[in-house]
Design brief:
By secondary structure, this protein is an alpha/beta fold. The protein is built from nine helices and 15 strands. A nine-stranded mixed β-sheet has the order 14-13-12-11-7-10-9-8-15. The model has no long low-confidence stretch (mean pLDDT about 95).
Length: about 350
């Protein structure tokens, strides 16, 4: 392997344009070899917007012997199959979330990566936000006391500038807001509080398989004992976009508005106080977590560390998503339910 790790990005949609490509171009340890998209004009426009002269291809298979790693940013339904093909070809893979639509597919990817001794990382960039790391440290040091519960609210009117529109296809996306955005939150919650042992799941799917709103109650069994939580997700209305963790001695809040800090609320004597904690030099730019994610991926390829989120971690999140969908109840919407009409007509 050369000093620079040769990378190809598969998929030239919004997430590649705004996040993955800038991260690769900024990292000294990566060399972009190719952009791949079924629409060659889209790939060419993307390359031109950055002044790049890399290869433009419509078939990623032509690169299996020409690069060291793939960054896969294709529709969800293609993640697992392309990952498996790349691993069989001896390439390391950083796949956008979710790694697969079904946990069985994700398990196959994790098993093959282990068999081939290749790096398989999953794009959960929120693991690399300073606030996420700060909350982990606060929990490990017991700053909140005995944990009681958490409440998470994330969402707003859907405004992602999608190029392909696959999010609106059950076959391509695998579901709605839970498997799209929710996997980010579930990944963090399981990493912090341990496996989910019980849950109650409701959404507003009326048969399309694309839920826009979710209510999820969970119970975790992990390093801090039994922790209860409540999660709301939405693609239709704006929520608080924060996570509040309550303990016997303090409360911590992470806000999407500032992914570099957490706010602690506790009492000092009899006086309530608020503390804002941050890591020195934290970069608030949304692309920064993608750069750190890529850095972890490249360092893992070099054997210097391990992927922060690997295939096995993706499996446990997707198993929970599968179980939620299998046991879904519909959120009560009495205003939309058919009403009984009196059958008697006045004479």
């Amino acid at each position: 392997m050369n000093d620079e790790i040769r990378v190809a990005i598969l998929g030239c949609g919004a997430i590649t344009k705004s996040r993955h490509l800038p991260a690769v171009l900024a990292h000294r340890g990566a060399r972009l070899e190719a952009l791949v998209d079924l629409d060659p004009q889209r790939a060419k426009r993307l390359a031109a917007s950055y002044g790049l002269e890399c290869r433009i291809l419509t078939d990623y298979r032509l690169l299996l012997d020409a690069v060291d790693a793939f960054i896969i940013a294709l529709p969800n339904s293609l993640h697992a199959s392309v990952t498996l093909e790349a691993l069989r070809g001896g390439l390391h893979v950083l796949s956008e979330k979710p790694l697969a639509i079904r946990p069985e597919e994700a398990r196959s990817c994790a098993e093959l990566a282990a068999e081939k001794n290749l790096v398989l990382a999953v794009g959960m960039n929120r693991r690399f936000q300073p606030a996420s790391e700060l909350l982990r440290l606060v929990l490990e040091e017991g700053r909140l006391g005995e944990l009681e519960e958490y409440t998470g609210q994330y969402g707003g009117p859907y405004d992602w500038d999608t190029a392909s529109g696959f999010y609106f296809s059950k076959e391509q996306a695998g579901g709605g807001v839970l498997i799209d955005y929710g996997v980010h939150v579930l990944d963090l919650l399981i990493a912090w509080f341990g496996p989910v042992t019980r849950f109650d799941y409701q959404d507003d799917d009326w048969g399309s398989g694309l839920e826009a709103n979710v209510l999820l109650e969970m119970e975790h069994a992990g390093p801090y004992g039994t922790v209860h939580g409540h999660l709301r997700l939405s693609r239709t209305y704006r929520l608080k976009n924060s996570l509040v963790v309550r303990g016997s001695e303090a409360t911590a809040e992470i806000s999407s508005a500032d992914p570099t800090t957490i706010v602690l609320e506790r009492t000092l004597g009899a006086q309530p106080i608020r503390e804002t904690l941050g890591l020195p030099g934290s970069d608030p730019a949304p692309s920064h977590s993608f750069y750190r994610q890529l850095d972890n991926f490249l360092r893992s390829i070099r054997g210097l560390e391990k992927p922060r989120v690997d295939g096995w971690q993706a499996v446990r999140v997707l198993e929970l998503v599968r179980d939620c969908y299998a046991q879904r109840r519909r959120i009560p919407e009495p205003w939309a339910e058919p009403s009984e009409v009196a059958s008697e007509v006045p004479a």
